[in-house]
Amino acid sequence: MLATIGRAEEPEAEGARRAAWLLEPSFLPPKMNKLSKISSCLLTANICCARIAHNWYVPACQLVCWYAAMGAQLMMALAFSLQTDSAMPLYYQLAQSLRAQIESGIWNPGDMITSERELMQVAGVSRATVRQAISNLIQEGVLERSHGRGTFVVRRKMEQDMRSVYSFAEQMTRQGLQLEDQLLQRHKVPASEELAELLAVQTGDWLIHIKRVRYLQGVPLMLDSSYIPYHLCPDLLTDTFAPPLYRMLADKYDLPPTHATDYLEPVLADRAQAHLLQTEPGVALMFLQRLTFTRGDVPLHVAQNYIPGDRCRFRINLSSDTTEAELKGGLQATKTSFKLAALAEKED
Questions:
Q1: What band does 17 get if pLDDT is binned at 50, 70 and 90?
Q2: Distance separating alpha carbons of residues 160 and 182, to the nearest angstrom
Q3: Phi/psi at 196 (5° precision)
Q4: What pLDDT, on the 0 to 100 scale, is given for residue 282?
């Protein structure tokens, strides 16, 4: 009776609601691995049991049992059966077990895996063995380590073939993926000296500047800034923006892209770029600048894209024909097996 003073009059439904709120997994950090989430839930459940004398915590008992069952199931899934008498080293066996957990969906791309300490306890091996197993998977591109944050399952990189004038959005559609845009800016800006030279306009002439973050499956894939001469399509400034941009230019303004030149250069993310791309300042980005032309060899569009190096890679198919490699400093080589400036011609 004493235990229920001040709580006895509270309805059972309200008690259930409070218990469910306390154990709600959505309150946990989204990047916690599943084992850590279960541990947090079990810790919360233990707190509930410690306060079981209060009437509105009683409905938590059922949730405690449910989370305990989940935790036991996950611990069984992570209970690696390493064979100490096997010819295969323990670190190799552990790496194979970790790979199997990833392939089975225990951890998804972008998830943080179990900590080294937890792996030591579950697998019954030393820290050196755990670190060697993780290092092997990092070298193979399965895992990646983020300093001060943990070890994560590598996201699958988007691959872009650079044989032709391509639209990122249309390439993703062909692969069954949806590219989504967050439009940040669309306004007129005066052409800088560099942009004026590229777009064959006068310095100070009006350009339409379109700035957006492009997302693939909810993850920022690139930060894109596009510049188009205002006099070519002034209505683009006010018309409903409906990407892909190339399709808009071709269908709505009769400005089909015919050929383009891409320049790729590695750079480091500044704070503003890192914030928009949801990464860390100083990480490696691929800076891709494209100059696109329309009919009559008229410069149509300059794109400046910043792409995290861990989210995309580019494929350039080479042949024995003469190609050009433009090197910083003005040096130029021909008939070489590589090219840094990829001349992309429109597909038939």
A1: very low
A2: 21
A3: -60, -40
A4: 93
